[in-house]
Design a protein that fits this description.
Length: 259
């Protein structure tokens, strides 16, 4: 009798364990795919309108900008996942679709990705910032986005870049090695900073007039006013100055406009 009871007990225990395993598998299936009877997922990672989906699009966009700066092209769809560290292609395709929708990327010939208008936008801080560290990605005060070329260049078809050489304009904040953004024009007003051709050389100076004749005024007391006699032509008006803060070896400086 005891043996029979023991056998029945073992069978009952095995049946309970089997039923428990089946229930666990059913719950796991519903967790991954949803309840087939209701159509609603019950996953702990279900997202609602009140709980936003984690989004790293901005970080991925910054990585793509750095990639483009280094290679002058964007990765293909197939390469996108490897560049950004996606485990599968689906995530990369979805990211590309979102960035196309936001105007940062566009489809190019051959099915590749190409930068769109907003791809080159950079944050511009309009507020005063104190010393110390700041997380630009989380900054909310006075933050706008501008494309650098649109911020500096109003008329691309008329714009040239002129390298500045010399120290004749240092008191106006124009330094040796700077790059002047010049909008081409045959005429300029008194007080304009201009790039001009004088005796076959290009120079950046302030334009003034003496008795109706143009003179080029330096902003350094150690330099003399230039009074052109024969060879003189205004190349254009200086609209801005570009400066990169890095060490520039004197021997490696490119020739440009004498300041």
């Amino acid at each position: 009798m005891n043996n029979i009871a023991w056998k029945y007990g073992v069978c009952l225990l095995q049946a309970v364990q089997s039923l428990g395993g089946r229930l666990c598998r059913i719950l796991a299936t519903q967790t991954r795919h949803g309840n087939p009877e209701t159509g609603h997922a019950v996953s702990e990672r279900t997202y609602t309108k009140d709980v936003a989906r984690p989004n790293n699009d901005q970080q991925h966009l910054q990585a793509l900008r750095d990639y483009f700066a280094a290679h002058r092209m964007l990765p293909s769809y197939a390469e996108l996942g490897d560049v950004l560290g996606f485990s599968g292609k689906a995530g990369a395709f979805q990211l590309a679709r979102r960035l196309v929708e936001t105007g940062h990327l566009q489809s190019a010939v051959g099915g590749r990705l190409a930068p769109a208008d907003r791809f080159f936008e950079l944050p511009v801080l309009d507020d005063k910032l104190g010393a110390g560290t700041i997380d630009i990605d989380s900054w909310s005060g006075g933050l706008e986005a501008h494309e650098l070329d649109r911020l500096l260049v109003e008329h691309p078809s008329k714009t040239v870049l002129v390298k500045v050489r010399g120290d004749s304009m240092v008191d106006a904040g124009v330094l040796d090695g700077d790059t002047a953004i010049v909008e081409r024009a045959d005429k300029a007003d008194s007080g304009d900073f201009v790039a001009a051709i004088v005796d076959g050389q290009c120079t950046v100076k302030e334009l003034r007039y003496e008795c109706g004749k143009p003179v080029l005024v330096p902003h350094n007391k150690n330099h003399q006013i230039i009074r052109p006699r024969q060879d003189f032509k205004i190349l254009g008006v200086v609209k801005g100055i570009i400066r990169r803060y890095r060490r520039i070896e004197a021997a490696g400086r490119a020739r440009g406009a004498k300041a």
